[in-house]
Amino acid sequence: MKIALAQLNYHIGNFEANTEKIISNIQSAKNKGADLVVFAELAICGYPPRDFLEFDEFISLCENAAQDIAKHCIDIACIVGLPIRNDVLQGKDLFNAAYFIENAKVKSITKKALLPTYDVFDEYRYFEPSTSFKCIDFKGKKIALTICEDLWNINDNPLYVSNPMDELIKEQPDVMINIAASPFSYTHDDERIKVLSDNAKKYHLPVFYVNQVGAQTEIIFDGGSLVFDADGEMKAEMKYFEEDLQVFDLTEVENVRNKYPQPERLTDIEQIHDALILGIRDYFRKSGFSKAVLGLSGGIDSAVVCALACTALGAENVMAVLMPSKFSSDHSVQDALDLVNNIGCMHEIIPIRDATEAFDGMLAPAFKGLPFNLTEENIQARIRGTIAMAMSNKFGYILLNTSNKSECAVGYGTLYGDMCGAIGVIGDVYKTQVFQLAKYINKERELIPINTIVKPPSAELRPDQKDSDSLPEYDILDRILYQHIEFKQGSAALIAKGFDEALVKRILKMVNAAEFKRYQTPPILRVSPKAFGMGRRMPIVGKYLT
C-alpha cells in the first residue's frame, strides 16, 4: 500500500480554495501511484475555525465540500478532516472528525477523543469527545486513525475518557495514521519527533503523521510531516514552512531497516525567521492585501521588521516612513536611510516637529507650570502612530507593528502610538532574539546597518534617552521574562534561581501592570511556546504577581 501525505496550506472558511487544493492533490497523489492520500485535521474548513463552528451553514458547507471531494476518490482513497454534527443530540453539537473516503463514498468516520484546552487550543468549547474507536480496513490492512492530540497528550485529564490507541491496538492494526493541526513554536519540532517516535515504539507500529503548513492570523503551522517505522526510527521528514506532497510505500517502511539520514535541525533563530516570513506572507495573502507600511526609526526592531516584510512581500510592496523628531539623532535617520538603500523598499520622510509643537501649544494652558515628562513623550509616539495610520488609510497599506516581546511584557510602549498596527510581527520575539535575528538577516550581506545593531537601543523621545534608563539590561530582563512567561515561574521561584529579589518584583509588577495594554494590541505572530494573546489569558485587574 502506498500512502501519500498531503501537507497543505489551508484558508479558514475558504471552502472553494480548500476544496480545489484538496482535489488537485488527490489527483497528484493518484498520478504518483498512491493508494491513499491523507490530509490534515479540519482540512476542509481550515484550523482553527473558532466560532465559525457555531454557524449551522458553516457545517453544511463543510459537508458539501466533502461530498465534492468524494467524487474524485476513484481508484484512490483519502482521509480528510472536517467538523461534523453530533446527531445523538447529547453533549456538544459537533465532533472534530475525519472521513475515510473510498470509491466516491464515505466508508468510515473517525472522531477525535482528546480535545485540547490549553494554550491556543479551545476545542472542548465546540466539540464532543469520542468514546468509540474502530480501525479502518483498506487493501488488506488495518489502519489505526487518530486526530492530532489523540496521539499526543495521554494523561489523566477527566475530559479524556479513553486513550484511542490503547483501544485501537486491540484490533491489531498494521499502521497508525495521525492527522494534525500542530502549531509552530521554535521548541516544537524536537518535541513532536520524540512524541511520535515514542508512540511508534510503544505500539510497535509504523506512524504516518501529516501536519498543516501556513499561518492563520497569529498561529503558524510549520508542516514537518513525518514517517516512522515500528522501531521508532524516522523514515522521512517533509518540508518545513512549505507545502509538500510525498508518497511512501508502507512495505518499505515496515521492512527496510536502513536508517534515514537525519537532516541538520534548524536553529531557533532560523526557525523564527522562516516562521515570521510565512506569518507575514499569509496574513496579507489571506486578508486580500499586498502592501505594508511601518514606521522606520533607525532602531533594530523596525529594521528587522522592515527586512522581514521585504522578504515576505517584496521590497516594492513595503513603505517605510521615517518620522524624525527634534530628539532624533542624525545617525538614526542615516541608519534608517541606509537600510532603505540596502533593501530597496519605498520610503517617505515626514518630520513630526511641527505637529509636536502644535500639540505643545494646544496643551500649554492645561499643562501650565508642569514639567516635560512621559506625557510629551507619548504625544510624539501617538503623532507617529497617526501618520502611519494616515498612510495606511490613504494608500491601502497594512500597518505592521514593530514592538518586541520584551517591550510588550513590561509595557514599554505607547498605546495608540508605537503599539498600533494590524499585525505584531516580532511581539513574540525577545529583544535579545531580535539582535540575533538581525545578525541572521545579515548572514550573506549587510542589509541592516551594523550601527543599528551595535548602538544602545533608544526610543529617542527625550534628550540622550536610552532603554536602559527605564529598563534593566535586556540580557537580564529577557532571562527573567522567559522564566516567568514561558515556564510560569513566580517571584519566589525566580528569586530561588538567584535573580535579585528587588529586580524580580519590579519586573513582575511591570508585567502585571501592562496587561491592559496587551489587551489592546494587534494579534502577534506566535513563534514561542507561550505567546501573548489567545494562549496567555490574564486578568487585567489581578493582584497576584505584583
Automatic annotation (TrEMBL):
Q: Which domain of life does the protein's organism represent?
A: Bacteria
Q: Identify the keywords attached in UniProt to this record, alphabetized.
A: ATP-binding, Ligase, NAD, Nucleotide-binding
Give the positions the UniProt entry annotates as the active site: 41, 112, 148
Cited InterPro entries:
C-N_Hydrolase, C-N_Hydrolase_sf, Gln-dep_NAD_synthase, NAD/GMP_synthase, NAD_synthase, Nitrilase/CN_hydratase_CS, Rossmann-like_a/b/a_fold
Q: For this protein, what is the EC number?
A: 6.3.5.1
Gene Ontology MF: a single term: NAD+ synthase (glutamine-hydrolyzing) activity
> Where does this protein act, in terms of pathway?
Cofactor biosynthesis; NAD(+) biosynthesis; NAD(+) from deamido-NAD(+) (L-Gln route): step 1/1
Q: Which NCBIfam families match?
A: nadE, PRK13981.1
Which family does the record claim for this protein? In the C-terminal section; belongs to the NAD synthetase family. Belongs to the NAD synthetase family.
| PANTHER family on file | GLUTAMINE-DEPENDENT NAD(+) SYNTHETASE, NH 3 /GLUTAMINE-DEPENDENT NAD + SYNTHETASE
Stated name of the protein: Glutamine-dependent NAD(+) synthetase
User: Gene for this protein?
Assistant: nadE
